[in-house]
Automatic annotation (TrEMBL):
It catalyses: oxaloacetate + H(+) = pyruvate + CO2; 4-hydroxy-4-methyl-2-oxoglutarate = 2 pyruvate. Keywords: Lyase, Metal-binding. It comes from the Bacteria. Catalyzes the aldol cleavage of 4-hydroxy-4-methyl-2-oxoglutarate (HMG) into 2 molecules of pyruvate. Also contains a secondary oxaloacetate (OAA) decarboxylase activity due to the common pyruvate enolate transition state formed following C-C bond cleavage in the retro-aldol and decarboxylation reactions. It comes from Marinobacter daepoensis. This is 4-hydroxy-4-methyl-2-oxoglutarate aldolase.
Length: 159
């Protein structure tokens, strides 16, 4: 994949949507992008766990965790599984944990923050539905690109 620089992509493709600021870059891959797969869950990462166990094929999982800061939706074991299975990255509207290990994982990860508590697995969550946060609706099949400058969403692949 070509180098992803979101300011340059915004200049070249002014039609992209720009996600409002507030995310931090935690992964070992600092710039990433790909086709969107969505997960909507709240304090239960069961669907995230299922998905990282499947082939990612360079896609990006966008997880709407309802901005909860009580439980981490991603930890080192799930991040490693995602990297092994070819996911380009995860964007989490919520928190993660094990940030030192995730920072050494070959995976892009952006999230709102960190918290040490894991979720309970209750098997609750939705896959591949539109999710909206930080001023943008993410739809399965769209494309998302992220770097230290921010996150953008496009109807078509840009790189």
């Amino acid at each position: 994949m070509s180098k992803i620089i979101t300011p340059d992509l915004c200049d070249e493709f002014p039609e992209v949507q720009v996600v409002e600021p507030g995310f931090n870059n935690y992964g070992g891959v600092r710039q990433f992008g790909g086709e969107i797969v969505t997960v909507k869950c709240f304090e239960d990462n069961s669907v995230v766990k299922e998905q990282v166990g499947l082939p990612g094929n360079g896609r990006v999982m966008v997880v709407d965790g309802g901005a909860s800061k009580r439980n981490a939706l991603l930890g080192d074991m799930l991040a490693e599984k995602a990297a092994e299975n070819g996911w380009a990255g995860l964007i989490i509207y919520g928190c993660i944990r094990d940030v030192d290990e995730i920072g050494e994982t070959d995976l892009g990860v952006q999230a709102l923050g960190t918290v040490p508590r894991k979720t309970e697995k209750r098997g609750i969550g939705d896959l591949n539905i539109p999710v909206t946060f930080h001023g943008v609706t993410f739809r399965p099949g769209q494309y998302v690109y992220a770097d230290n400058n921010g996150i953008i969403v496009s109807e078509k692949p840009l790189v």
